[in-house]
Amino acid sequence: MFDESLVGYTAPPFTVPVERGKVVELARALGLQDRIHLDVDVARDEGRDDVVAPPTFSTVMSFWRPELDDDPIRYDVRRAVAGGAEWEYLGEIVAGDVLTVTMQVTSVEHKVGRRGPMTLLTREFSFVNQRDDLVLRLSTTSIELGDGGN
Amino acid sequence: MEIIEGGYPTVDADGISERRVGPIMLTDLVRYAGAGGDFNPMHHDDGFARAAGYPGVFAMGLLTAGLLSGYVEDAIGRERLRRFSVRYTDQVWVGDVLVMAGQRCPSTAHGEDCFDLEVRRNRSDGAVVLTGRVVAAGVATAPRSGRN
User: Fold this and answer.
1) Greatest Cα-to-Cα distance within chain B, rounded to the nearest angstrom
2) Do A95 and A59 contact (CB within 8 A), yes or no?
3) DSSP H or E segment with residue A27
4) A17 contacts in chain B (CB < 8 Å)
């Protein structure tokens, strides 16, 4: 259950190596047509060192996020649904980059929607590369359906 | 899953021409699970999804968002994207074809172009499964010449 005490919680930063294989795998899974995500030669012809991460590449961080014994954000997957996301693109992410990710909980809201009571948890992530450039900001909203029993 | 129609979306004063993608099959969900790292059984285990009260598995929101990001890139150009936001409004079921469209909205105070985005599923209900917005730097209103 998400509760207001989570607001302001900051997770320990972690690093995400941007691997060529994961960039290409995600681009293929999404059927992306821009070859700059898929073909190193195309990326190099366009002046990049390697393939360029797709717009929703941030999801790949889930492979690198450490599991915390005391993670305060816990929910029941049967009652959880994704609410939405917003990406702000501040720079390019290219295979070979190493990103440092920080996350903070910015809001917990209770609402009553089409499917009854729900709790919305909003998290903001920032992605900083190995040159200390902030390249991406991401805000995500997760929804927990029901009143959580409390 | 493939682009059925609208492989080369064009942009004009009103918005972005439609694209149809699909049908979204279970294999597409499994493939996306591995690529993106979402192993919530709700998206690949029918028994689990039914026990949770759904008629069956449904697509990850981020799969729909990612497919939409490809539409936006092809219409506007990857390097021009500044902000891309999505809100999930309904489920995408196995077998659905997605219909993507963009309507121009007023330019931002910084002169950036803005498009309201919508993804519908091609069932009889035609439900909107995602609404979103993209803000982009300096988009020309002329169609892009070919792909890059």
Assistant:
1) 50
2) no
3) helix A20-29
4) none
DSSP code per residue over B65-126:
HHHHHHHHHHHH-GGGEEEEEEEE-S--BTTPPEEEEEEEEPPPTT--EEEEEEEEE-STT-
Query: pLDDT tens across A19-57, in order?
Result: 999 999 999 999 999 999 999 999 999 999 999 999 999
B-interface mutation test, from A23, A41, A89, most B Cβ less than 10 A away: A89
ipTM for the predicted complex = 0.93
CA-based nearest residue to B57, from B79, B39, B42? B42
Query: Mean per-residue pLDDT for B48-73?
Result: 96
**Digit-coded pLDDT (tens) for B66-104:** 999 999 999 999 999 999 999 999 999 999 999 999 999
B82 interfaces chain A, CB cutoff of 8 Å: yes
DSSP characters for A119-145?
A: EEEEEEEEEE-TTS-EEEEEEEEEEEE
Residues of B in contact with A86 (CB under 8 A): 83-86
| Residue of chain B with shortest Cα separation from A145 | B52
Measure the CA–CA gap between B87 and B81, rounded to whole angstroms: 18
User: What's the pTM value of the predicted model, to 2 decimals?
Assistant: 0.93
Contact B82 A89 (CB under 8 A): yes
Determine contact: B41 vs chain A, CB below 8 A. Answer: yes
Residues in A closer than 8 angstroms to B42, CB to CB, are 77-78
Q: What is the pLDDT of residue B55?
A: 95
The CA distance from A29 to the nearest CA of chain B, in Å, is 5
Residue B128 clears pLDDT 60, i.e. is over it: yes
